[in-house]
Amino acid sequence: MKSIFKIILVLVGATVITALGIDAADTLSGSRTTLLGQLIGAPGGTCPAGMIEVSTAASFTCVDEYEASPSANCLYANPNNAKTTLENIQNSSCEAISKVGSKPWRSVTRDQAAALCLKSDKRLPTSEEWHMIALGTPDNDLCNIDTAGVTETGKNLECKSAVGVFDTVGNVWEWTSDEVVSGKLKDRNLPETGYVISADTSGIAIVTSTTTRSEQYGNDYIWTNQNSVWAIMRGGFYGSGDDAGVYAVHADVPGDMIGDAIGFRCVK
How far apart, in Å, are the Cα atoms of 173 and each of 128, 235, 260? Predict the structure, then answer.
């Protein structure tokens, strides 16, 4: 016969929950969680609004479902130059949010993007994390890769990754937190600029070609530079064409570069 707890006192924070006649092995209908587990605060609903959980990720839990855009409290709903971005950032009530149907926040440097993520208790993804987030996104015109300008977040319903985030391919380039130093990313030499012929598990090219395209890698392209220190953007933008994709990497841009085709998203 099952052992039954006649009285269970569970202390959760400052709240005491009293439960009568609950079997520790009883499970809720349609759930793998025990009723007792529910009472003591089993995990669930861990991501804030606008983010989705990635249960298979080891280094983060949540990712913005959409490219970051300004919150309703920002002075400019569509910042598209350095001045409007700076004035938004200087407004203490302005935040970067993940919301469908908004224009992505552009003309933002990597450090500004990182600061905006931190303001919401988030951070920029690493290049490897970004690749995991983006995997499965269509590498074609189901995404905004061959148009005259930026579209609203989530407008291209089919431009969705395996984990459920929108617009990693095209629309705007997305900042990552990594840097390339003298042609090396985390102690690995990057290949010359060209079409991706082979890539590692983080989606960074191992072999490139200046003339041959690879359908296996979506005809994607990587830009590299063997000198100085460079930031990394990924995914391509609205005018990238075939060059855009989950293996498309700009690893030769200064971290303070801004433009109408550069944005970001955050992880937590």
Answer: 15, 6, 10
